[in-house]
Amino acid sequence: MLTVQDLNVFYGPIQALHGLSLQVDAGEAVAVLGANGAGKSTLIKAIMGLVPPQSGAIRLDGQPIHRLPPWERTARGMALVPEGGRVFRDLTVEQNLRLGGFLRREAENRAQLERVYALFPVLAERRGQLAKTLSGGEQQMLAIGRALMAQPRLLLIDEVSMGLMPILVQKVFQVIDGLRQANVSILLVEQNAAAALEVVDRAYVLENGHLVLEGPAAELRQEPQVQAAYLGG
Ligand SMILES: Nc1ncnc2c1ncn2[C@@H]1O[C@H](COP(=O)(O)OP(=O)(O)O)[C@@H](O)[C@H]1O
Ligand SMILES: [Mg+2]
């Protein structure tokens, strides 16, 4: 479904991604694991169209999308949960959610809103509250809910566990697992390798902008290099 081929991204003279290639098949959940500064957010932003690649190709359903603006990528079925669960702080919970569905019809949005509220009852209780009054974990759920309002086929998630209490990390990864069951393809980038490897089918390891390892999640969990660097083993 998503193919990234030989992607090179620079910030001025600094190369953040080096010839990176990966793929996500339909219905698959894939993680890119890496330490702080490895290039995870850069990868997600390049796929979504928020930073321009210097070279390489990004294809969705075989169609090149790397020259399309972000909103056209959204229209083709991709949605982003940005790092730190960024939400519009001075809008209400429901206004934030409705922004996520701006490309959809009102009737569809009403139905999808109810699904998101069923997934995150805490958002339903707080639908009229300003987003800035939510806790960090609730804002993270709102960011996921907002992305789901676009009814994406491919959900890109940047470091959803960051700054969350372990119990909320669990809850968020349960939701991700649920989305997978609902046939939403997922690409998530994470420092929290232990949590990510619980829910994904496959994973890649990113170091200093280079992919250095890839494999099924169960295999990577056993990999000494992964255990030493990311699983405290
Ligand atoms: N806007 C930017 N300008 C210059 N350098 C950046 C910018 N954003 C990220 N970088 C650099 O690119 C590298 C990868 O960053 P990033 O993709 O944010 O990593 P991660 O998300 O894995 O922590 C880092 O060395 C970072 O300092
Ligand atoms: Mg990041």
Describe the structure.
The mean pLDDT is 93. The chain starts with a strand and ends with a helix. The longest helix has 16 residues, at 166-181. It is built from 10 helices and 10 strands. It has helices at residues 40-48, 70-75, 93-100, 106-119, 121-125, 136-148, 166-181, 193-199, 217-222, 224-230; strands at 2-11, 14-24, 29-33, 55-60, 63-64, 78-81, 154-158, 185-190, 202-207, 210-216. The protein has 2 domains: 2-77 and 152-230, P-loop containing nucleotide triphosphate hydrolases (Rossmann fold), CATH 3.40.50; 89-151, no CATH class. Helix content is 39%, strand content 27%. The strands form 2 sheets. The chain has a 6-stranded mixed beta sheet with strand order 6-7-8-3-9-10, with helices on both faces. Strands 2-1-4-5 form a 4-stranded antiparallel beta sheet, with helices on one face. With 233 residues, it is an alpha/beta fold. The structure holds adenosine-5'-diphosphate and magnesium ion (MG). Residues 11, 14, 16, 34, 36-42 line the site of adenosine-5'-diphosphate.
Approximately what portion of the residues adopt beta-strand conformation? Answer: 25-35%
Strand order of the largest sheet: 6-7-8-3-9-10
Q: Please state the second-level CATH architecture of the largest domain.
A: 3-Layer(aba) Sandwich
Gap from first CA to last CA = 34 Å
Question: Which series of helices and strands comes N to C?
Answer: EEEHEEHEHHHHEHEHEEHH
List the domain count as a whole number: 2
Structural class: alpha/beta
- Give the mean pLDDT: 93
Tally of extended strands?
Answer: 10
> Which fold does the CATH topology of the largest domain refer to?
Rossmann fold
Morphology: globular
